[in-house]
Design brief:
This protein is an all-alpha fold. It has one domain. It contains 5 helices and no strands. The radius of gyration is 18 Å and the shape is elongated.
């Protein structure tokens, strides 16, 4: 396989993991959340079908795709010759991709620290009072919507570096 190297594989895996992560992020925000809202008015099957069967599986893929995207992103920074430290310190020549890396890091934090723990309460995977569930819904929604907004500049920063705009 001529031309296929570690950089190509690293970037390919990073892109595939990122598509999975961002695709699920958009699915949650534009499909599942509105569908659950509509399903609340329907008693048969209501939101239970989505929350019991679809959401846990989608969240599993969502959070591990976030980790895979982050790890392969770090590997890509090294393979591209940018360097992890240079990217995260926004060193000369690494500002654009570094901003993308920072946004991706914030988004990963939101997934594991804000969205996932609160989704476990919402879905009944951990015990929570009605007040805790209500608060969890707000926190998870805000973190998810924040990630949706951050995904746009993050993708622009990452793509622009690959298209010859290192600064």
């Amino acid at each position: 396989m001529e031309g296929l190297n570690i950089l190509s594989l690293t970037v390919w895996f990073h892109v595939m993991a990122g598509i999975t992560w961002i695709g699920l992020l958009y699915y949650f925000n534009f499909v599942q959340v509105p569908a659950v809202g509509q399903a609340l008015a329907d008693n048969d099957p209501g939101p239970a079908a989505i929350n019991k069967y679809v959401a846990p599986r989608a969240l599993l893929w969502f959070r591990w795709a976030a980790v895979a995207t982050f790890i392969t992103g770090l590997s890509a920074l090294e393979s591209l010759g940018v360097g992890i430290v240079n990217a995260f310190t926004l060193a000369e020549g690494a500002q654009i991709i570094g901003l993308g890396a920072w946004l991706g890091t914030i988004m990963l934090f939101n997934v594991w620290v804000l969205i996932w723990p609160n989704q476990k309460k919402i879905l009944g995977m951990v015990d929570a009072t009605a007040d805790e569930i209500a608060k969890a819904k707000k926190v998870a929604l805000m973190a998810s919507r924040t990630n949706t907004l951050l995904s746009i500049p993050m993708l622009m920063f990452m793509v622009s570096y690959g298209h010859g705009m290192p600064y």
